[in-house]
Amino acid sequence: MHDFCVAHDIPYSLAYGTLIGAVRHKGFIPWDDDIDIIMTRENFDRFVREYQSDDHFKLVSPEDKNSFLAFARVCDMKDTLIITRSPWSNYTTGIWIDIFPMDSISDNEEEHKKRWKKLSRSWIITVISRGAKANPFNHYKWGRPNYMIMVKKVLFLNGIFVRRSIERFIKRITSPKYADSAHCAQLACCDEWGFYEKKDFEEYTTLEFEGHQLMVIKEYDKVLRLLYGDYMQLPPEKDQIPKQSHYIRFYHKE
């Protein structure tokens, strides 16, 4: 993905725990379990339109009618397999890289907070609806059958409206009302608060990540401190656990 973005002049930045890992560990945070990347909405839309791979990597994007996400993923389709209680597409894939767009928001932080809370509630509903598509009896065992998934299947009609809800959600986060604002945030997955200046996403540099030089915004320290405070401080040992292990299993194919 990095090679494609460099070849097509599409800037991106490592983000969230992946960016902390690059700064603090020069690679993965030891207990992390994914890779997060952000792009401006303009670059995200270009990437979704143009991405191609000659290898076994597949782009699953909001443009794909089989996707239940408002952001994109580049997935391994050959060597790995994931089983999840929160299905996010009609495809069976392996491990992925998350790619999030940064969308325009109000320049008034209080107005943005109110809007973000409303969007967050909508996003949570789509996540619950996705869970209605899970198999409560899959043979990659978590243990006994998951009765909560059965309840979701009844309440959310087996998730048949999840794609429609995602399309509505995308229209809301890309509202033209804020197109000329000076601020942006990542709204496609409302699990992280953010109120950033667009100018902080205009210049890029590189940092080492697992022996590779990968792109990051030049203002990475400012953005990380806005989100995490003193991000160089390790969290308590009890919090040093993979964040997705309770609902996703990752496998190598034989």
Describe the protein:
- The chain has about 250 residues and is of the alpha+beta class.
- The protein has one domain.
- It is about 30% helix and about 20% strand.
- The protein has 7 helices and 11 strands.
- Strands 1, 2, 3, 4, 6, 7 and 8 form a 7-stranded mixed β-sheet that branches. A two-stranded antiparallel sheet has the order 5-11. The protein has a two-stranded antiparallel ribbon with strand order 9-10.
- Strand 9 and strand 10 form a beta hairpin.
- Helix 4 runs antiparallel to helix 6.
- The longest helix is centred in the middle third of the chain and has 23 residues.
- The protein is globular, with a radius of gyration of 18 Å.
Main attributes of the structure:
21% strand; 254 residues; two-stranded antiparallel sheet; alpha+beta; single chain; 7-stranded mixed beta sheet; 11 strands; 31% helix; globular
